Amino acid sequence: MTALTKSWIRELHRQAAESGKDPNAVPAPSYKLTDAELREKLEIYKEIIEAVNRFVDKFLTTVTDSPIMVAVTDESGHLLAVHGNEAMIGNFRRFGIVEGMRYDDHNGPSSIDLCLRYGRPVQLVGEDHYHKDLQHLACYSAPYHTSEANGTITIMTDVEGAHPHLLALLCTIADYAERELLLRRQNMQLQILNQALLHTPHYGVLLTDERGLIVELNDSMRCLLRSLSPDEQYGPGVPVFSMPHLGDVYREVIESGEERIGMDLTIGQASSARHYMLDVVPIVDAASGGSLVRVIGTARDITELRTTKERLHRAEKLAFAGQLAASVAHEIRNPLTTVKGLIQLSRSNGRSVPHHDLIVSEMERMNMIIGELLLLGKPQAVQFKEERCYGILLEVLEVFCIQAKMNGIEISSVLLQEEAIRCERNQIKQMFFNLLRNAMEALPYGGKIDVELAVEDGHQRIRISDNGVGMEEEVLVRLGEPFHTTKPDGNGLGLLVVRNIVSAHRGRIDIASRPGIGTTVNVYLPICY
């Protein structure tokens, strides 16, 4: 209902007269907010007042000097703000109508009180007012409702300016204010989500329009793109399709309208590679029939997660290797003990055994190898003594030289500097044996192996290099993993044993290799002081 019927107006006037209200005197307000209360209210209703004032300012520019005033109240009828013609505002103030006062039935019939009471637009024009001093006015009130506040918006003008369309205009103002506040809330939420998404260091974010042109991207994504194409500059307006790795994915999503979730993206080579999980999702406008409006992609760095999983996998493989090695070692040790006993028995009976000392020495080393295999399954205590590496190396080279000559391999050793180290002699011997065997296997058609001993930064440095086939970076980073090998008859345990030996001696090992050029292994063992 937009206007009150004559019978209803007469009933309102009768009730006012029966309550003793004087039609010739506008009563003083029954209640007025304190300054502190008014400030608190204004803070709550700040946005609705700003929205109303913007609309009114635009409207007043089309009706210059018209006696129009617009008022905003809260849900209890407290007048919070007035805006419009200054003369009109001054005219109301002489009746004590100021910010903070409350409109209620104490004041007699008013459009504000009736609007709040019945929850619908109300107009009082001329003699519809009970008090004679207000009968030269036309007042129109409409309710507004937002998530934070409710109240009324009122237009007041003189009777000459009254028009039925003013109530419709007022309803439009209320609707405009409600929608603007809702839009503000939505924009604020979108801005918060946008900041949270774009400013996170954990995700790279890239947003494009329906044509594949970049709309926005965050710093994490810029870093990722620089690693893909250091010479390219990507920013708003640049096509995404030219990007390596990402361009084809965005093209698929735009053409098919289907998301791509959980895609692996690897940037870089081997040990320096970074791994990302890529999600690219289309955003459609449901209001326009589901047409594509945006495509958003996120790239999450999962390098650490993948590294952790690989370490766990290696640990599981190592545990299995230890169990397998221990069981095999037990089976080998029994016949080895028998052979060693028979050789010693033959010599004790006066029989000549060619190369007896070398055979016994190698059998001792075989027994030590078995001990190392058992070490993978169950670590054993070893006793360290002061030793010098070069003498141990010469013992190993004595075994290797015959086989090396047969395979057309030249082995040279250079002693630049040597210091004593604390070590378990047989373990160091095993380390030399495994490294030299790997070097020989890398020279199937002959070649050269160089062994060099020097002192460097408080460590005995042992360098073994060959000019063999070399290794790719992908193979190099997996060296030492149990059962990972490129040899047809290998088991991947040789270098694993070497790493365990070096680690037990508190040293370190570095391996460098290039395909077609060869491999260099540097072992660093702390020297004695």
Automatic annotation (TrEMBL):
<feature type="domain" description="Histidine kinase">
    <location>
        <begin position="327"/>
        <end position="529"/>
    </location>
</feature>
<feature type="domain" description="PAC">
    <location>
        <begin position="255"/>
        <end position="314"/>
    </location>
</feature>
<dbReference type="GO" id="GO:0005524">
    <property type="term" value="F:ATP binding"/>
</dbReference>
<keyword id="KW-0547">Nucleotide-binding</keyword>
<keyword id="KW-0902">Two-component regulatory system</keyword>
<dbReference type="InterPro" id="IPR036890">
    <property type="entry name" value="HATPase_C_sf"/>
</dbReference>
<dbReference type="Pfam" id="PF02518">
    <property type="entry name" value="HATPase_c"/>
</dbReference>
<keyword id="KW-0597">Phosphoprotein</keyword>
<dbReference type="InterPro" id="IPR003594">
    <property type="entry name" value="HATPase_dom"/>
</dbReference>
<dbReference type="InterPro" id="IPR035965">
    <property type="entry name" value="PAS-like_dom_sf"/>
</dbReference>
<dbReference type="InterPro" id="IPR003661">
    <property type="entry name" value="HisK_dim/P_dom"/>
</dbReference>
<dbReference type="InterPro" id="IPR005467">
    <property type="entry name" value="His_kinase_dom"/>
</dbReference>
<keyword id="KW-0067">ATP-binding</keyword>
<dbReference type="InterPro" id="IPR029016">
    <property type="entry name" value="GAF-like_dom_sf"/>
</dbReference>
<protein>
    <recommendedName>
        <fullName>histidine kinase</fullName>
        <ecNumber>2.7.13.3</ecNumber>
    </recommendedName>
</protein>
<dbReference type="InterPro" id="IPR004358">
    <property type="entry name" value="Sig_transdc_His_kin-like_C"/>
</dbReference>
<dbReference type="Pfam" id="PF00512">
    <property type="entry name" value="HisKA"/>
</dbReference>
<dbReference type="InterPro" id="IPR000700">
    <property type="entry name" value="PAS-assoc_C"/>
</dbReference>
<keyword id="KW-0418">Kinase</keyword>
<dbReference type="InterPro" id="IPR036097">
    <property type="entry name" value="HisK_dim/P_sf"/>
</dbReference>
<keyword id="KW-0808">Transferase</keyword>
